[in-house]
Task: structure prediction
Amino acid sequence: MCERKTDYAFEMACSNIRYGAGVTREIGMDLQNMGARNVCLMTDRTLSQLPPVGVVLDSLTKHGVKYKIYEDVRVEPTDKSFKAAIDFAKQGHFDVYVAVGGGSVIDTCKAANLYASHPEAEFLDFVNAPIGKGKPITATLKPLIAVPTTAGTGSETTGVAIFDFENLKAKTGIANRALKPTLGMVDPLHTLHMPSRVAANSGFDVLCHALESFTALPYYLRSPCPSNPINRPAYQGSNPISDVWARHALKIVAKYLKRAVRDAGDVEARSSMHLASVFAGIGFGNAGVHLCHGMSYPIAGNVKTHRAKGYNVEHPIVPHGLSVVLTSPAVFAFTANMCPERHLEAAQILGTDVSSIKKDDAGRVLADTLRSFLYDLEVEDGLSSIGYTKEDIPSLVKGTIPQERVTKLSPRAHTEEDLTALFAASMKLY
Amino acid sequence: MCERKTDYAFEMACSNIRYGAGVTREIGMDLQNMGARNVCLMTDRTLSQLPPVGVVLDSLTKHGVKYKIYEDVRVEPTDKSFKAAIDFAKQGHFDVYVAVGGGSVIDTCKAANLYASHPEAEFLDFVNAPIGKGKPITATLKPLIAVPTTAGTGSETTGVAIFDFENLKAKTGIANRALKPTLGMVDPLHTLHMPSRVAANSGFDVLCHALESFTALPYYLRSPCPSNPINRPAYQGSNPISDVWARHALKIVAKYLKRAVRDAGDVEARSSMHLASVFAGIGFGNAGVHLCHGMSYPIAGNVKTHRAKGYNVEHPIVPHGLSVVLTSPAVFAFTANMCPERHLEAAQILGTDVSSIKKDDAGRVLADTLRSFLYDLEVEDGLSSIGYTKEDIPSLVKGTIPQERVTKLSPRAHTEEDLTALFAASMKLY
Ligand SMILES: NC(=O)c1ccc[n+]([C@@H]2O[C@H](COP(=O)([O-])OP(=O)(O)OC[C@H]3O[C@@H](n4cnc5c(N)ncnc54)[C@H](O)[C@@H]3O)[C@@H](O)[C@H]2O)c1
Ligand SMILES: NC(=O)c1ccc[n+]([C@@H]2O[C@H](COP(=O)([O-])OP(=O)(O)OC[C@H]3O[C@@H](n4cnc5c(N)ncnc54)[C@H](O)[C@@H]3O)[C@@H](O)[C@H]2O)c1
Ligand SMILES: [Fe+2]
Ligand SMILES: [Fe+2]
Result:
């Protein structure tokens, strides 16, 4: 099933990435080369005190580049926080955007650039249907340089911006190739500042991007088959190019994530994870993610009181990477029968000897591999330990339903009962 | 030496690729989506009689797209044949270019688009220095859709156009990101028409793109280190991203090239090689190639009487893939000591058991692996069998000197004496 070939196409849309230790020191020169006269620098209040932003500011000053700074990005942004950034962007009439931060900052900056370039648009116009209107983007956006400081979302490679829609209690987003940053400037030195839990959670995001895009419905089984190529979605299912990225990212996660979490000074491990986040981003940006991400959106959106360790924020949050990884053992146990070879290969890359494992056991084995991986990294023991009870499951299921854009890429079709069972199975992990 | 990390950056510039059996049937719709009103379709006289061009023409007609066809592309183009195509393009005032063919067609079309967009420019203006002036490209080129029919040059992914400069008796080219096609439409069905020797020779090109980019000088050892990022060359040395592409392309070559050459009806093998040519193209487009390619340019340019088997052309040629692969055993024996692990890994991917081989023997082992690979594919026995004698070596060396743009990416520095020895060692292979 997973390997059938048909007369069906896939696209590889790729991103311009510059990678190198210290590479952001040159950013002022890049902005000069672009003729930037009025730059919008977006970040959050933690990063604005740290070297990643300091280095950029020094370079702007050195090269005489004029800028305004917006440091009010909300960690785990909401529709409200997106709108505040959009207002700032509209007033500033900027000609280039620079986002220095994790996914929260980069996504906010993408949205600010988009709506400032479309001043007449209403907020819901570009938000993914069925929640928003999913209208096409017609204006040309301003250039955006993304400088990721987590390892991470891969947002520097994707045309996606995610926010928590507070009324709905679930995340949704804007997905359009036009949002893709002009350049991702990936400077691994910036990741040395991440607190250990940020390294862990953003690393789990990389892990799930890789696992989900690797096991996503193959591109030739996706439906509907668009009659005009212009309608082919960005999330087109797993394909031989995204597979290359996903496998490679998974290998790096297997080798380096534990080291990167345990020792902030392990430059090799943190640098490697930074590159893995780019690889996994390109992979899922072309193939898509599925159930872990689809189910994560209400897990993040329904948060009540959970205070994330190591996150310097005022409001309760479930960090994105944590919200995706907590359901991963249940999800891959559920999907394994559709392409057991890939689930076994993933387990093997993550360090399990699968040589004598039967295909029927692929799901159990990958789930066990993930559980012990998470246990070693001291991850909370399931949804129950971040404040959810059985009574919350109906709302979690309800918040997953509108995430069809991603969940339909699950290799296994699923009902509301299946989702209920997956949330229930994720209440405790160990 | 090969793995030292320094404070140095590399870039990944990527290409938009659409891959799928039958995907060119949609091309008329793409052109309509782009608003094309006057399309230039370039091809050569062999292909113009074959289905790859037929399918495109049918699609243009079906969607009412107006076009003019240019079928005079020279196989292994020259400055003269480039100029003829440029004249056609200038007179046509086209708004979109479509190239259906191998590297010869795609490269010619890139040049035609470039000079038609720069009507005031002289031919040498954009040709690589020191042969040409290497001027920056300032105009915006028209969109170009490349439909590769060989597997192949990877020209659909690169900003490079190569031609034989007849006065110099050596190939040179134009290298600029602006030349990169807007979209590579990779339809593996087209490769089913390749004669066996075209499949072999274009497959050797893939092999050498992968091997050379995998063993190229690492990006952090390249000199000079540009002081402004805008001056970073496209060929920047091997790096962790190009490595992913190179390794993967090599694996496909190892698995499928022989099958693709021996059985034109082996769809799996020919399709896989078509994808490998894309992968290797992205790899070398970012990392560069080195000695096999640098030395191939005079090997092709000095051709006297060699008639390439299976090529339906009037003039003597050494097909590009043959001209690169004939020196490969000598080249990798020469470069191996600079990064023996990579040479051994390549030999292993190509099927040799290297578990008990010492590092010092890496060059010999990879060279032997290549020789037996070429022998199995009935490749001519060295430069002597395509008409060269010892007396020609000084001209071959002389034609290699100006290819510094690529040869400087060799992991091992080399003198004229070294080049002389490499040509001499390539006279006979078996
Ligand atoms: N656009 C996409 O393709 C995509 C993909 C996945 C996730 N996301 C979204 O991205 C967001 C999560 O982003 P994230 O995981 O990168 O984390 P984040 O941006 O939310 O940052 C998490 C915390 O770490 C801090 N931080 C970030 N980098 C730091 C550094 N180098 N040193 C010290 N502190 C640092 C931040 O200030 C913040 O407090 C979520 O909203 C998620 O939905 C987007
Ligand atoms: N731009 C780059 O990045 C790049 C890279 C490598 C090589 N090149 C250049 O590309 C050229 C070689 O291109 P190539 O190897 O693709 O071959 P080609 O374009 O020269 O074609 C070789 C022969 O095969 C025929 N042919 C091609 N496709 C066919 C098909 N599907 N069915 C039947 N016949 C077919 C052609 O008509 C021609 O006779 C050289 O000039 C080389 O220097 C360019
Ligand atoms: Fe994610
Ligand atoms: Fe080549």
